[in-house]
Amino acid sequence: MGIGRRERKKKQTREALEQAALRLFREKGYDRTTVRDIADEVDVSQRTFFRYFPSKEAVLFGNWEESLELLRRLILGRPEGEPVFVALYRAALELAEADKENEAWLLTVKGLAEKSRRIGEYERTVIYPGFERVVAEALAERMGVDMAKDPRPRILAAVSVAAWTTARRIWMESGGRLSVSDILSRTFGSLVETIPEGGMQGPRGVPGNAQATGREGIKRARFAGRRP
Description:
mainly alpha; 0% strand; Tetracycline Repressor, domain 2; globular; Arc Repressor Mutant, subunit A; 10 helices
């Protein structure tokens, strides 16, 4: 069933604002471009701009909240008893595959971020904490524990998001030439080597050599067509 006329119009306006912002950022520079400039380019009010984006920085990251919800579903959809880092690695692979069409945009954002510290600050203070929160919540549900009493979901989320952001940074520094799946297998593989998962499974987990199964699980995922 196709989207309605109103939703189609909203989608067009959102995309027009994103494209206008990117064009102006390239022409004038990020710091010298204002929200008014972007709104004027699309012939809408600043108030309309803020209905779509909470800030100028946010326009560069698209509808990233949708990626959060997709990641939550991917984590919760992994098989029960699968080692934590394997589940997170495979979820990261699927998320990267779903985001493949935005790779050129990500490289553009990297170039802009190199010229304006405000973009990097937005990633560090808004985007990454958002991913940590969602991963922690999904892990707490998967492990059957209460985050208010058990710190493990937050700890696992923090190190896993660090592995993901490190992979993303390496990929962007390569100009998109390296394989995302290969980099993710290296960063998550390093995580398994460094932090054994014994005791990290929670009530719903399974006993055994979790470090070994995590390492082997990542290897199997890597060579199984690079898609879980």
